[in-house]
Amino acid sequence: LLPRLTAAASAAREAVAAFDTHLRTVVLPASDGEARLGRERFAAKMRHTMRSDSLTPERILDAAESLFMEHGFEATSLRQITALAEVNLAAVSYHFGSKEELFESVLTRRLDPMNRERIALLTRFEREDAPDVLSCERILTAMFIAALALARDRERGGENFLRLLGRAYADPAPFIRRFLSEQYAVMIGRF
Predict the structure, then answer these.
(1) Closest CA to 18 of 48, 47, 53
(2) Which helix (H) or strand (E) holds 172?
(3) Which letter, b or e, does each residue of 46-67 get, where b requires 16 or more Cβ atoms within 10 Å of its Cβ?
(4) Torsion sign, CA atoms 172, 87, 157, 142
(5) Alpha carbon separation from 169 to 33, 59, 102 (Å, rounded)
(6) CA atoms within 13 A on the CB side of 163
(7) Is 21 left (phi over 0), alpha (psi -120 to 50) or beta?
(8) Closest CA relative to residue 52, chosen from 20, 1, 86, 99
(9) In whole angstroms, what is the distance from residue 176 CA to residue 172 CA?
(10) What string of pLDDT tens digits covers the 191 residues of the chain?
(11) C-alpha to C-alpha distance for 19 and 50, rounded to whole angstroms
């Protein structure tokens, strides 16, 4: 999800630059100082709007993560999420579909990188210890080192995300357990 968001932000910046050039040369040619000032204000407003739109999925994910952590899946409404993210309901539907898909995206954006780190560390330990079998200590180190690093990294959700993950495992909603077991079966199988 993060690479797609980064690519979308880059494409949005390019679109803003192209749109700005179009406005300056074709749509709003300035004939005097007042028209030029109006054109620049309009172009600035359009640039701001397009930049804000490119950050919408990130704002929705941040708001949802915070509210799901605080209230749980069932007790959090889409209305609460849209209010905190300062977006409309259509934005959530457009970017994520349903509330369940939004919850899955919240988990995926943090879990996928963490689990890649876990697998990479486990693979490294297996290579280092070959042909011997890994000790429980090495397996647990591979499992928890990435989680501890995540807990200390506020940019990646920090301890709040780990609280959300704990809540997700305790949540009674069946789709959450099914999602976690299906999505991360390979990682779980490795450990």
Answers:
(1) 47
(2) none
(3) ebeebeeebebbbbbbbbbbbb
(4) positive
(5) 62, 24, 16
(6) 13
(7) alpha
(8) 86
(9) 8
(10) 556 555 555 555 565 555 555 445 544 444 555 455 555 665 555 454 444 566 899 999 999 999 999 999 999 999 999 999 999 999 999 999 999 999 999 999 999 999 999 999 999 999 999 999 999 999 999 999 998 998 888 888 888 888 998 899 888 788 998 999 888 888 888 88
(11) 10
CA angle 38, 39, 42 (to 5 degrees): 85
Tokens 């330990």 sit at which residue?
A: 125
Confidence (pTM): 0.68
Amino acid at residue number 30: A
SS3 state of residue 76? coil
Question: With contact defined as beta carbons under 8 Å apart, do 73 and 27 qualify?
Answer: no
For the four alpha carbons of 79, 83, 85 and 86, in that order, the dihedral sign comes to: positive
CA dihedral 32, 35, 40, 41 (to 10 degrees): 150
Q: What is the DSSP letter of 134?
A: P
